[in-house]
Write a structure and sequence with these properties.
Blueprint (H helix, E strand, L loop, with lengths): L1 E3 L6 E3 L5 E11 L3 E20 L3 E8 L12 H12 L6 E8 L9 H16 L3 H4 L2 H9 L6 H8 L2 E6 L5 E6 L5 E7 L6 H6 L7 H19 L5 H4 L14 H12 L4 E3 L6 E6 L3 H6 L6 E6 L6 E4 L1
Parallel strand pairs: 5-6
Antiparallel strand pairs: 1-2, 3-4, 3-13, 4-6, 4-7, 7-8, 9-11, 9-12, 10-11
Helix pairs in contact: 1-2, 2-4, 2-5
């Protein structure tokens, strides 16, 4: 199946079969690394799409958000696919999309980043020479137009542990770093949600030098702790910039963070919350899980080395 590109110069050839993409949940900030540190987790959404000759979009959703998410062009994955097709110079008549969602929504585990990165990777994979037309670096930049900060989207695209930043020119970039293979992440997910926009609005406009210095030091230490010396993770996940300032939005989560840290367990709020993440060696997972009391949905997860990946039809 082929159509003329949007610029009229190159022919776009679409794949005739379905394309399947897996994209991971992500945890951002990790304590001190506000808007910069991201971690890919083995909690994965699956997206399947196929270009059709019939006009319009058909969307199916199962799993997380299936009762609430739209089934039309306003769906976030569809919007990301449309942006990707435009960047590829492609204009399909229509496509079908099936989303199997595992990542909880509104809990600080990067569900929107997964949708955006997953949709862009899907669009690229549906074009035969999509990898040549749209590099990962350019795909990341497209994603930044839909997500205002690059931490979650970088981890969702590249996997593992990422440090992301935006240049003075507004260009997103990221460094992918391998982590200690014995590390695990325990997530404790509450029943309530915290909208990311509201969480950001709760932050003060300015921080003092002492607060900035504290977080800068712990952010640097975090890289060393995640890669070389996990024994330093308790100190490396300490934060003074954003968690306490939003305590009122996720008070039960902060109570759990305080409780775990009081037991010597490296714990923090995941992204904008309210999910709590805790780090442990593989041999320590059971003891960390037993320290989480109350009505939390818990997972012990490996850190996912790969970001969004095409896995076939």
């Amino acid at each position: 199946m082929s159509v003329s590109g949007a610029d009229g110069e190159k022919t776009v050839v679409f794949r005739r079969d379905a394309v399947r993409v897996q994209v991971p949940a992500t945890s951002a900030n990790l304590g001190p690394g506000f808007d910069s540190a991201g971690l890919a987790l083995e909690l994965v959404d699956e997206l399947v799409a196929m270009v059709t000759d019939d006009p319009g979009v058909l969307v199916e959703v199962s799993g997380e958000g299936s009762d609430d998410l739209p089934r039309d062009s306003s769906h976030l994955v569809v919007r990301a696919m449309a942006l990707g097709f435009s960047a590829l110079g492609a204009s399909p008549e229509g496509f079908v999309l099936r989303c199997t969602n595992v990542i909880p929504h509104g809990r600080g585990l990067g569900s929107s980043a997964a949708a955006i990165i997953g949709g862009l990777v899907l669009a690229r994979a549906l074009v035969v020479d999509g990898d040549d037309r749209l590099s990962d670096d350019n795909l990341l930049q497209l994603a930044l137009t839909m997500e205002s900060h690059p931490d979650n989207i970088s981890a969702a695209l590249f996997g593992s542990f990422t440090i992301a930043w935006t240049t003075d020119e507004g260009i997103a970039d990221a460094a992918r770093i391998e982590v200690n293979p014995d590390l695990r992440v325990i997530v404790a997910i509450p029943s309530f949600e915290v909208p990311t926009k509201a969480a950001r609005q709760a932050l003060p406009a300015h921080v003092d030098y002492a607060t900035a210095s504290f977080n800068i030091a712990r952010s640097a230490l975090l890289v060393h702790a995640l890669t070389e010396d996990p024994s330093l993770l308790l100190e490396a996940t300490a934060d003074r910039m954003h968690q306490e300032q939003r305590r009122g939005m996720y008070a039960p989560s902060m109570v759990l963070v305080d409780s775990l840290r009081g037991r010597g367990i490296a714990a923090a709020i995941s992204g904008a919350g309210p999910t709590v993440i805790a780090f442990a060696l593989a041999s320590e997972v059971d003891s960390v899980l037993s320290a989480i009391e109350g009505e939390w949905r818990t997972y012990a997860l490996q850190i996912r080395p790969a970001g969004a990946r095409v896995t076939g039809s």
